[in-house]
């Protein structure tokens, strides 16, 4: 079983966390998908996932999740070369 096959299975619209109403778990899943997309070089998709993670983390009051989402968003924007400080480093 290839990594791309496994990745395609977890990116399906219905996740177990979403099906059972676990908003925190859904946010974590979006964060993990963002990390995977970042690793694959799809920074725009990574940013979308991290923004979803950030929104859910804010909704459920997950301060650690908010911190992580902002950090991963910063990394993705930096790697995309589209952040306010991208020209300084």
Which helices and strands, and how do they pair?
Layout: H1 3-10, H2 16-19, H3 23-39, H4 43-60, H5 63-80
Describe the structure.
The model has no long low-confidence stretch (mean pLDDT 82). This protein has a domain at 43-81. The protein is globular. The longest helix is centred in the middle third of the chain and has 18 residues, at 43-60. Helix 4 packs antiparallel against helix 5 (63-80). By secondary structure, it is mainly alpha-helical. The chain starts with a helix and ends in a 9-residue tail after the last helix. Helices cover 73% and strands 0% of the residues.
Quick structural overview:
The protein is an all-alpha fold. It contains 5 helices and no strands.
């Amino acid at each position: 079983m290839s990594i791309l096959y496994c990745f395609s299975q977890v990116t399906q619209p219905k996740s177990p966390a979403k099906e059972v109403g676990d908003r925190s778990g859904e946010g974590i899943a979006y964060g993990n998908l963002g990390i995977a997309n970042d690793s694959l070089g799809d920074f725009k998709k990574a940013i979308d996932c991290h923004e979803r993670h950030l929104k859910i983390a804010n909704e459920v009051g997950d301060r650690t999740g908010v911190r992580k989402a902002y950090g991963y968003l910063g990394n993705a924007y930096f790697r995309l070369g589209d952040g306010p400080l991208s020209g300084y480093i």
